[in-house]
Write a structure and sequence with these properties.
There is one protein chain. The protein is mainly beta and about 260 residues long. The protein has four helices and 20 strands. It has helices spanning about 70-75, 150-155, 165, 210-220, and strands spanning about 10-15, 15-25, 30-35, 40-50, 55, 65, 85-90, 95, 100-105, 110-115, 115-120, 135-145, 145-150, 170-180, 185-190, 195-200, 225-230, 235-240, 245-250, 255-260. The strands form three sheets. Strands 1, 2, 3, 4, 5, 6, 7, 8, 11, 12, 14 and 17 form a twelve-stranded mixed sheet that branches. The chain has a five-stranded mixed sheet with strand order 9-20-19-15-16, with no helix packed on it. β1 (about 10-15) and β2 (about 15-25) form a beta hairpin. The termini are far apart. The relative contact order is 0.22.
Length: about 260
């Protein structure tokens, strides 16, 4: 089992270097020795949150998404209930951190936000049972599964799903990895320019954390740093340049990102 030291793990830039630290309640970061997967204690250095730049809390090896995984969203989409997890992947190049800009691509016609609880895999997992699945989870973070709907509809009409989810900057994550929260009934919210658009709980998930980790591990070896973004509740909607999108999940924090237009070169 992963040794669960209760903490909120942040990755941040200080003096030109990317380092990991524990975020404390007073807003200070205590620098870690090692990585979230191999912690060797603390360095003794402390930094004020205001003096550093938060980065995506992990550099993922893979980002695996789950579609139609909230009962409320299935009803909203008037879609049949999936019999097995509806999976897709986002490239690691889509990942950005807190405060970084979501780039509205020049191909964009209808780009939406999606608030999602994200599983961070902590150690290699292959053919694990649902009962033991959470032993392989390091913790949880917030994600925004940004999606271009016009392209998505065209892709899905052909039985595929990639480009619409995979534009650069289409996967903000953060602000921290919470290692000690109970995943099964967390409040998940999305705000657009301060107005709440999504407000649900992870108890509405069709396939929960144990099912997703176990299911995926039957076909592929999950690796430390893999992310599983678990699906979005009802209330998704469009964004445009100039907007601010906030994803807030109970026990984790607030992930905030501005939206900017792609520069034409």
């Amino acid at each position: 089992m992963i040794e669960r030291i209760p903490m909120k793990i942040a990755r941040y830039s200080i003096a030109g270097s990317a380092v990991y630290g524990q975020l404390h309640e007073d807003g200070t970061l205590e620098r870690l020795h090692g990585t979230p997967f191999d912690i060797h204690g603390f360095s003794g250095e402390r930094h004020a949150l205001a003096d550093v730049r938060l980065l995506a809390p992990i550099v993922p090896t893979r980002v695996i998404g789950v579609g139609l995984n909230y009962v409320s969203h299935i009803k909203e989409a008037n879609a049949p209930t999936p019999r097995i997890p509806m999976l897709f992947m986002k490239p690691p190049t889509a990942v950005i951190g807190p405060g970084e800009a979501i780039v509205y691509p020049r191909e964009g016609q209808e780009v939406h936000f999606e608030a999602e609880l994200t599983i961070v895999i902590g150690k290699r997992a292959r053919r694990v049972s649902e009962a033991e699945a959470c032993d392989y989870v390091l913790g949880y973070t917030c994600a925004n599964d940004v999606s271009e709907r016009v392209i998505q509809r065209e892709e899905m009409s052909q039985g595929c799903l990639l480009t619409s989810k995979g534009f650069d900057t289409f996967c903000p994550i953060g602000p921290v990895i919470a290692t000690d929260i109970e995943y099964s009934d967390l409040r998940v919210r999305a705000r657009l320019n301060g107005e709440t658009r999504q407000d649900s709980r992870t108890s509405d998930l069709l396939f929960g954390v144990p099912q997703l980790v176990s299911y995926l591990s039957q076909s592929m070896t999950l690796l430390p740093g893999d992310l599983i973004i678990t699906g979005t509740p009802a209330g998704v909607g469009p964004i445009k340049p100039g907007d601010i999108v906030e994803i807030e999940i109970e026990g984790i924090g607030i992930l905030s990102n501005p939206v900017v237009a792609e520069r034409l070169t």
